[in-house]
Amino acid sequence: MAKKRSSSSTSGTAKKRKGPAGQQPKRFPLQKIHELLKSKFPSGVVKPEAAVFLTAILEYLSVEFLELSANVARSREKDGDKLTVTLQDTLNAIKSDPEIMELLEKVKKKG
């Protein structure tokens, strides 16, 4: 028989990541995404795993967009300590990445 883990034994030992200003990193709202899925598919059953999977995909894509946008902003701003990512940087990053362009074209065709 497998031992059950208690959440109290590891709760004090886990380290939390903090952002530059000592804040917790932003997370996608898993519960809101699950509720959105349930509202879009009222006749079917939406398992919680579907919301977790979709949330992970959205987090991954947002990190990719931000990373590409920051690279474009860095190439635009050669000097300066503070990096500012603009909408134009994001649009240029999207246009320069063929995989993202392909993904967006597929999304536009479906919708």
Automatic annotation (TrEMBL):
Gene Ontology molecular function terms on file: DNA binding; protein heterodimerization activity; structural constituent of chromatin
Domain of life: Eukaryota
Keywords: Chromosome, DNA-binding, Nucleosome core, Nucleus
Region span, Disordered: 1-28
Principal cellular location given in the protein's record: nucleus
Entry's Gene Ontology cellular component terms: nucleosome; nucleus
Presence of keyword Transmembrane helix: no
Compartments it resides in: Nucleus
Alphabetical list of InterPro entries matching this protein: Histone-fold, Histone_H2A
Protein family: Belongs to the histone H2A family.
Oligomer status and interactors: The nucleosome is a histone octamer containing two molecules each of H2A, H2B, H3 and H4 assembled in one H3-H4 heterotetramer and two H2A-H2B heterodimers. The octamer wraps approximately 147 bp of DNA.
Protein name as catalogued: Histone H2A
Gene source species: Trichonephila clavata (Joro spider)
Lineage: Eukaryota, Metazoa, Ecdysozoa, Arthropoda, Chelicerata
